[in-house]
Amino acid sequence: MIGFFGGSFDPIHLGHLNNAQQLTHQLDLSTLFLMPCREPVHKNSLTFSTDQRLKMLKIATQNITNIEIDTREINRTSDSYTIDSLKEIKRQYPDQAIGLIVGMDSFNNLSTWKQFEQFNQYCHLIVLSRPGEQQQHTIQNFTSVENKTELSTKISGLLYFADTDQHNISSSNIRGILFNNATDGKIRAKQNLVGLLPDSVINYLEKL
């Protein structure tokens, strides 16, 4: 199975990376693609530019095996919709099982996503726990499974709640540490970011 972990990654942090590595191991993924979007439809405007977010992703993953970057969404010039990416991915990997990885917060809002009722035709849905987020409903078009080995029995249409560590790290909290205010954009002391971001990303941000 190939995994696709979408998000704004504004910026990428250790919570993203740790979950990606755990899922790659636990689900025996051949590859896990981090798939940054150009401009998220369901979020406010981004803090970092497209080039900056992509650069941080490349820096953060350069020494991690089986984790790569998929740029199909970040390269788009129009709104980024997951259903369009799923259709493209299925055309690219017609015989592979695809795992779409989302956080519990995104899962709970999935009914607001464009053509979400078609997702089961293209992928399995892998849901990550989030601190303070509880499952609010199920997705009728997906069949829930409790054992990860069941994901190999079908090529799409299964729902699995992954057993990964919960990290109380958010990109929004990191941005609050990064900037003293909204106008000067000065970075704060490096020690405030240790344990939240990879050292390579911290060094990159200090040079902006």
SSE blueprint:
Layout: E1 2-7, H1 14-26, E2 31-36, H2 50-61, E3 67-69, H3 82-92, E4 98-103, H4 104-108, E5 124-128, E6 143-145, E7 158-161, H5 171-178, H6 199-206
Parallel strand pairs: 1-2, 1-4, 2-3, 4-5, 5-7, 6-7
Strand content: 15-25%
Strand count:
7
Q: Give the end-to-end Cα distance, rounded to a whole number of Å.
A: 38 Å
Uncertain residue segments: 181-186
Mean pLDDT metric: 87
Number of helices: 6
Largest sheet: 7 strands, parallel
Q: List SSEs in N-to-C order.
A: EHEHEHEHEEEHH
Describe the structure.
This protein has helices spanning 14-26, 50-61, 82-92, 104-108, 171-178, 199-206, and strands at 2-7, 31-36, 67-69, 98-103, 124-128, 143-145, 158-161. The chain is α/β, with parallel strands linked by helices.
A few lines on this structure:
The protein is of the alpha/beta class and 208 residues long.
Could you list some keywords that capture this structure?
208 residues; alpha/beta; seven-stranded parallel β-sheet; 7 strands
